[in-house]
Amino acid sequence: MFILQGDSRDPDSSNAGDAKEKQEKYFRKNIDGTTTKFTLSEEDWNRIIITTYPRGGRLLSGDWTAIFRAKLRESNPWCQLNFRNNHVISTNSPKRHSAPFFRGSAKCKLPECDVKVRLAIRKENGKYVDVTYVGNICHKKQN
Ligand SMILES: [Zn+2]
Predict the structure, then answer these.
(1) Which residue range forms the structural domain that includes residue 117?
(2) Ligand 1: distance of its center to the CA of 95 in Å?
(3) How close is the Cα of 97 to the center of ligand 1, in Å?
(4) What is the distance between the alpha carbons of residues 100 and 78, in angstroms, rounded to a whole number?
(5) Do the domain assignments include residue 17?
(6) Residues in the 5 Å CB sphere of ion ligand 1
(7) Does residue 58 fall inside a structural domain?
(8) 3-class DSSP assignment, residue 26
(9) Contact, 138 vs 27, CB < 8 A?
């Protein structure tokens, strides 16, 4: 009986009130583990350049960051994403038939936010980019 009484304390104690006030200065949204995809049209691919290095290493260049950033806004209009790395499988890689054609990542540039985005394209000139969100959104409100 004593324990039950202890657990049924009013949750709106003065401490809880302080925590609530602090929380309202942030926009939060849980997206950790969310997966989605976006499509790349032929037109998009025409604006993406695949750079090849002498040793066979390849990277996406051209307008890929602008295209990806615009399309990621459909599933996450909140984060300000910076692309961190990208990797296109080498033409001479023994894994070229099984590994994804492209892998890359992006991260929200707001310091209080820990959202990362993992990106993958399975096939060369693939129509779909697989998107996985890691971490949750936490942004300081402007006002
Ligand atoms: Zn963010």
Answers:
(1) 28-140
(2) 34
(3) 35
(4) 28
(5) no
(6) 79, 108, 110, 113, 115, 137
(7) yes
(8) strand
(9) yes
Instruction: Quote the number of domains for the chain.
Output: 1
Q: Is-above-0.90 flag for pTM?
A: no
Nearest Cα neighbor of 76 from 23, 119, 46 is 119
Q: How far is the CA of 120 from the centre of ligand 1 (A)?
A: 20
Question: What spacing in Å lies between the alpha carbon of 39 and ligand 1's midpoint?
Answer: 22
3 state SS of 112: coil
Divide the 143 residues of the chain into consecutive groups of 10 and give the mean pLDDT of each group. Answer: 46 50 80 98 96 89 96 97 92 83 97 97 94 97 78
pLDDT for the residue 9: 47
Contact criterion met (CB below 8 Å) for 139 and 109: no
120: in domain: yes
Count CB neighbours of 131 within 10 A: 21
The pLDDT, as a whole number, for residue 8 is 46
CA distance 3 to 55: 69
Residue 15 included in any domain: no
The tokens describing 73, both together, are 């806004």
DSSP 45: H
